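Weekly modeling sync, notes
Attendees: S.R. (lead), two postdocs, one rotation student

Agenda item 3: backlog of single-chain predictions. S.R. asked that every request posted to the team notebook include the full sequence so nobody has to chase files. The rotation student volunteered to paste the first one in as an example of the format we agreed on. Action items at the bottom.

Example entry:
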Amino acid sequence: MKLSVLICTGFGLGLITKAPGTVGTAVWGLPLAWAVGMLPGVGWQVAVIALLFAVGVPLATAAGKALGGGKDHQAIIWDEIVSLPIVFLAVPLANWRVALAGLLLHRLFDITKPPPARQLEELPEGLGVMADDVMAALYAALVLAGLALLCRESNWPLFA
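Predicted structure, as returned to the notebook:
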């Protein structure tokens, strides 16, 4: 197996499971998001996410070609994995409720692809594979931040 395929499929997870994006995000994305959240400050967190994104573009391009499918082969889950930490930039991954809410929001926006996520998917090769998931993560981050604010204002302990 090519290295790009191994990495982009989450060490093969994307090739052997149903709903690979959801499973890959839960299995690999949540631990990555937690680890990125442990970095000292949002600047370092954004830098690591940007690096993983930059590495992901050529990896997703190569994996897509190696898998012989369309540009965004279903087994490629690197995009879901590395975009999940974006969701927790404003609301830290502090407990299982935050993790579940962020994961579900990320999957919702990745699956539905509201504009401009659908349009970003049309970018060339690996850039399109990665960019739509970044947009989905940004939407999820905004909604999660809104939920956290609502919970704080109403004394609802969802994120406590």
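Discussion: group reviewed the output briefly. The helical segments are 3-8, 13-16, 20-37, 42-67, 78-87, 96-112, 117-120, 125-153.
Action items: rotation student to repeat for the remaining queue; S.R. to check formatting next week.
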